[in-house]
Amino acid sequence: HDLWRWLYSFLCMMGCVRSCEVIIEDIITRMQDDKTGGVPIRTVKSFLSKIPSVVTGADIVQWLMKNLSIEDQGEAIHLGSLIAAQGYVFPISDHVLTLKDDGTFYRFQAPYFWPSNCWEPENTDYAIYLCKRTMQNKARLELADYEAENLARLQRAFARKWEFIFMQAEAQVKIDRKKDKTERKILDSQERAFWDVHRPVPGCVNTTEMDIRKCRRMKNPQKVKKVSVSFWICFIFFNITFLNLQIDRHCLKMSKVAESLIAYTEQYVEYDPFITPAEPSNPWISDDAALWDIEMSKEPSQQRVKRWGFSMDEVLKDPVGRDQFLRFLESEFSSENLRFWLAVQDLKKQPLQDVTTRVEEIWQEFLAPGAQSAINLDSHSYEKTSQNVKDPGRYTYEDAQEHIYKLMKSDSYARFLRSNAYQDLLLAKKKVSVGKDMLASICTS
């Protein structure tokens, strides 16, 4: 059981959601199998009604201890709570998805609602569910306060298609009314438990918010910083050797991820001092600062010029590269794009008392009607920037800057790499580098 717990924690940490699901679902299937000594599922008589298909928390804990060889009762409760947090078992009396070692009644979730079905519900699905609840038996399925607030918010958000949502809810209610009362009661509780996982009660932990499938579909994912190439080599080796899996049918294969990391590694290998010794020497481990002097020089080395071809970011962050790119744009009479981009970058570093003045200067130079260096913006970016100028700040031109960046990257940057200016500079530095190598070899001989 220690190995199982370690494996579960490890897979969760690595984001291997599908592997965790397979393990949990195998346990749940065995729990419900009467032939192999599963947890006893029974119907319990209440005051004036019957509670069908329930098990107690104590029964689940005892089964886990017996069948998974768990000696510590607290360990079994912890494991059961991990399973309950994913919605595979749920209490019928409240919305708190934890396991208690007592007579609290629990019910197993239907396989249709298991996470392995990869059904990620939308807000429209939630709206239909809440709307359907308002049409059913109010004494039994009355909305909680937070659900009523969610319903009101969704009704405002989907005002234009609320009639369609209401019709779908009505159709589902009609189908449900044709089912047996006991079956309908069980299905209602299972559907409620499904939404307790995906739209939890305020204050409860949302176990789905760190799902790797959702992280990939975020509109503005946080950019991952590029770290040392040696780190990527270790990372690739670990993943290929020990995991070698396909994350999910919605995600990229691990092989594709590894290919992109290997390509990045091969491209930047000569720029990582951990792998390729720096020339003439590494100033971090010696007293020779010649490398820093070379990097600050206005005469770029062949290695620096070659790096400009990796991406436009490499050109823009190198002062000499920016100058060369600006000269090229001036020759094409489109230097206003880069000058605007640089002006916006400078605006972000200005003291707060100078921001308003600088925003106005940039507007008059690049965006105002009849501006001396007018830039080409689409209507959406121009309208949004015009609104931002009314309340100036350091990020007033963020949308316009992004549009100009994409314009330069897709058009001007590609032509710059093909231009004679860049090619001549690259070849000239290459010849110098080769000449120095030949001279060194002659002197050595």
From TrEMBL:
Q: Where is the DEP domain?
A: 35-110
Compartment annotation? Cell membrane; Cytoplasm, Cytosol; Membrane
What Pfam families does the database record attribute to this sequence?
A: DEP, G-gamma, RGS, RGS_DHEX
What Gene Ontology cellular component terms go with this record?
cytosol; neuron projection; plasma membrane
Tell whether Cytoplasm is among the UniProt keywords. yes
Signal sequence bounds: 1-19
Q: Which UniProt keywords apply?
A: Cell membrane, Cytoplasm, Membrane, Signal, Signal transduction inhibitor
- InterPro entries documented for this protein: DEP_dom, G-protein_gamma-like_dom, GGL_sf, RGS, RGS6/7/9/11, RGS6/7/9/11_DHEX_sf, RGS6_RGS, RGS_DHEX
One BP annotation, GO? negative regulation of signal transduction
- Annotated membrane topology: Peripheral membrane protein
> What is the protein named?
Regulator of G protein signaling 6
